[in-house]
Amino acid sequence: MLAVASALMYVTRYGINSWGILYLQKIRGYTLVEAGILLSVNTAAGLIGAIGFGFLFDKIF
């Protein structure tokens, strides 16, 4: 089950990183710079969330 979850997370991450810029430009109307900034913020938020919840999990459990 862990392998399937990891594979699906990889597919999702690949899709966002590969098609996210195009989606934000074509469908949402962002410029290339704005779309790049949004995806960078998404990546940074994921990193901060993973570290934060790691510490939180360690404190609780």
Query: How many DSSP helices?
Result: 2
User: Beta-sheet strand percentage?
Assistant: under 5%
What is the count of structural domains? Answer: 1
Provide the succession of SSEs: HH
Q: Give the terminus-to-terminus CA distance.
A: 22 Å
DSSP E strands, number:
0
Any idea what the radius of gyration is? Answer: 15 Å
Q: If you average the pLDDT, what whole number results?
A: 93
Q: Structural class, from secondary structure content?
A: mainly alpha
Structural overview:
The protein has 61 residues and is an all-alpha fold. Helix 1 packs antiparallel against helix 2. It has one domain.
In a nutshell, what does this entry contain?
This protein is mainly alpha-helical. It is 89% helix and 0% strand. Helix 1 (2-26) runs antiparallel to helix 2 (32-60).
List strands and helices in order, with pairings:
Layout: H1 2-26, H2 32-60
Structure keywords:
single chain, about 60 residues, mainly alpha, 2 helices, about 90% helix
